[in-house]
Amino acid sequence: MRVPADSDFTSRLRSAAVTARVGLWLGICFGVAFVTGLVSHYAQVPDQPVPFPTSPSWGYRVTQGLHVTAGTAAVPLLLVKLWTVYPRLFARPPRGARRLVVTAAERASIAVLVAAAVFQLATGLANAAQWYPWAFSFRSTHYAVGWIAIGALVVHVAVKLPVIRRALGADVDDTSQDRPAATEAGVMSRRGLLRATWLATGVAVLATAGSTVPFLRRVSVLGVRSGDGPEGVPVNRSARAAGVTAAATSPAYRLSVVYADRVVSLSRDDLAAMPQSTQSLPIACVEGWSAGATWTGVRLRDLLDLAGAPAGHDVLVVSLQESGAFRQTHLQSNFADDQRTLLALQLHGQPLAIDHGYPCRLIAPDRPGVLQTKWVHRLEVQA
Ligand SMILES: Nc1nc2c(c(=O)[nH]1)N[C@H]1C(S)=C(S)[C@@H](COP(=O)(O)O)O[C@H]1N2
Ligand SMILES: [Mo]
Predict the structure, then answer these.
(1) Is 29 part of any domain?
(2) Which domain CATH number covers 336?
(3) Is residue 195 one of the residues assigned to a domain?
(4) How many domains in the chain?
(5) How far is the CA of 311 from the centre of ligand 2 (A)?
(6) Taking CB atoms and a 6 Å cutoff, what residues make up the pocket around ligand 1?
(7) How far is the CA of 368 from the centre of ligand 1 (A)?
(8) 98: number of Cβ within 10 Å
(9) Which helix (H) or strand (E) holds 280?
(10) By CB neighbour count within 10 A (0-12 exposed, 13-18 middle, 19+ buried), where does 112 fall?
(11) How far, in Å, CA of 315 to CA of 257, rounded?
(12) How far apart are the first and last CA of the chain?
């Protein structure tokens, strides 16, 4: 088999005019995904120099919905963009040592960009589909590679800025920046290709956005877990998967609230006998789905008061679950002291289903779903 040469690619569709237009939207998607990704990462850092805010309660729902939607939209854009530029892979290396070094450096930076971009979209999509075919920690790896991708993107845009500006400033059918080999009309017009690209992007967005935008739910064929679960709220990990069914339904269940050497022990009936508060707070999973819900239960602050804990302390929230990354979470003091933060006993006016965290679960405003601990067993006020 013969390796193709740059001159084998003759379609005028593979032009900077198309690449720059698709690239602009791809850059916007990566920018949005990067910024919202930083937010999501920071929200999950236990020790926050600047406390993550508890308001608006739907903030994380919006930023994480945007994150997953922007990543999904980037998939068709990246595919089209790579298609328009890949003949360059087969371009002959230039003559002369200096130009060779410059070209090699440019190629290497593009290799890093493409590898990082493909890695981010592939791992992000797999995560949104709750498929973890790898051994590394998703969050720290996706975060680290996010920096590499955005760094390589900034370098790439800076290097290509003259070409991008000329391409975006001229008509889409302008051929002044085309490769010399691109001399033939493509299978469709450039406008047609762009329209098809925007359409594919729109379909990708609609197919996933319904996991977080309720009225799109019916069109979101690819949306994961959009509404199946007791009370119409999706379930991420079931009680059976977490191995807590027996402990959660046992009459011996007690909640312990621990502050210094004080321990307060409460049954579910004790919790139900305390003053109850009802709050509308969404569950917003890092995987992109979210759902608004109405919770009723005991204010976390009231429980901390029972143990004599003053305001301003972080709380370790420990579940009945014996293993797994989310068996316990760190609740920052501003969340612990917020009047809307509950140890919920009910969802939509019904006793919590076991898959939603019976006997009781944490629900706090503007908090990533992964930290809304279910089947709570102990609250340990930190020193
Ligand atoms: N103990 C425990 N709590 C947990 C989890 C878990 O695995 N174990 N999963 C979390 C995740 S990832 C999400 S998105 C929410 C989902 O809550 P739901 O299943 O009630 O919708 O629960 C959180 N609470
Ligand atoms: Mo989640």
Answers:
(1) yes
(2) 3.90.420.10
(3) yes
(4) 2
(5) 28
(6) 233-237, 242, 283, 285, 319, 321, 324, 326-327, 356-357, 369-370, 372-375
(7) 10
(8) 8
(9) strand 277-280
(10) middle
(11) 10
(12) 69
What is the 95 CA–ligand 2 centroid distance (Å)?
54
Whether omega before 4 lies within 30 degrees of 0, making that bond cis, reads no
Which residue among 372, 373, 375, 376 is best mutated to probe the pocket of ligand 1, counting the most ligand atoms within 8 A of its Cβ? 372
Cis before residue 56, ω within 30 degrees of 0?
yes
Report the C-alpha gap between 53 and 35 in whole angstroms.
16
Quote the tokens at residue 260: 């210094």
Those residues with Cβ within 8 angstroms of residue 81's Cβ, 6 or more apart along the chain or in another chain: 19, 22, 23, 26
Neighbours of ion ligand 2 (CB under 5 A): 236, 285, 369-370
Same domain, 131 and 258: no
The answer as to whether 226 is a domain residue is no
The pLDDT assigned to 136 comes to 87
pLDDT at residue 3, as a whole number: 87
Residues of the chain with pLDDT under 50: 226
Give the domain extent around 79.
6-216
Identify whether residues 165 and 295 lie together within a single domain. no
Helix or strand or coil: residue 380? strand
150: domain CATH number is 1.20.950.20
DSSP per-residue letters across 211-267:
TTSGGGGGG-TT-SS-S-SGGG---SS-HHHHT-HHHHH-TT--EEEEETTEEEEE-
Rounded Cα–Cα distance for residues 152 and 116 (Å): 9
Of the candidates 124, 20, 165, the residue with the CA atom closest to the CA atom of residue 81: 20
Distance, CA of 238 to chain centre: 21
127 and 179 belong to one structural domain: yes
The protein residue with its alpha carbon nearest to ligand 1, atom 6, reads: 326
Domain end, chosen from 184, 201, 216, is at 216
The reply to whether 375 falls in a domain is: yes
**Shared-domain flag, residues 362 and 305:** yes
